[in-house]
Every structure is written in C-alpha cells, then in structure tokens.
C-alpha cells in the first residue's frame, strides 16, 4: 500500500471558493475513479495557512497509475481542471508518495 499525499497552497481569500468548486465538480469525479480518499483536510489556524491536504490510498504505484490515468481521461475531470486553472485559486502544489512503516498496517 502507498499513500499519494498532496498539499495545495491556496491564494489568500480563495479557500472557500476553491472548496466550493472542487466539492461540486472535482471531488465527485475523483470518487468515481479513485474511491474514497484516505483523508481530506484544510489547514486554517496553525502553521502554514490556506492549505488543502488530501491523501489517496493505492495498492501500488501501478494501481495509482491506472486509476489516475482513467481520471485524466474523463471529460468531466478535464472540464474541472480547466475551470480550476482559469479561477487561479492554487498558488503551489506539492506531491509525495508515502509508504507505511513496516509495523503499520494501512488496511
């Protein structure tokens, strides 16, 4: 098992708008292709502000590649990406692949 950990820095004042657009147009398409996320969070009070962090669990890098390939091929996802890019809410994105420690079971 691996976790795809993504952090988005959202421009100040844009977090509610980003979450509204993603929640109505992006999240449903991701659920269809990726299943339920391992976690989806916002950082608003302590530490770096205006961040969105989400994590998706995959069986392997090959599983991630197949699921994300299907997501990228979905016209609804492409429409969401175009709207999101046009809105310009995201200032920066960081992506990490996490592997569980040997003593921790992600299942």
Automatic annotation (TrEMBL):
Coiled coil: none
InterPro entries membership: Dimeric_a/b-barrel, NIPSNAP, NipSnap_domain
Domain NIPSNAP: residue ranges: 5-103
Pfam families per record: NIPSNAP
Gene3D superfamilies reported for this sequence: 3.30.70.100
Family: Belongs to the NipSnap family.
Name assigned to this protein: NIPSNAP family containing protein
Lineage: Bacteria, Pseudomonadati, Pseudomonadota, Alphaproteobacteria, Rhodospirillales
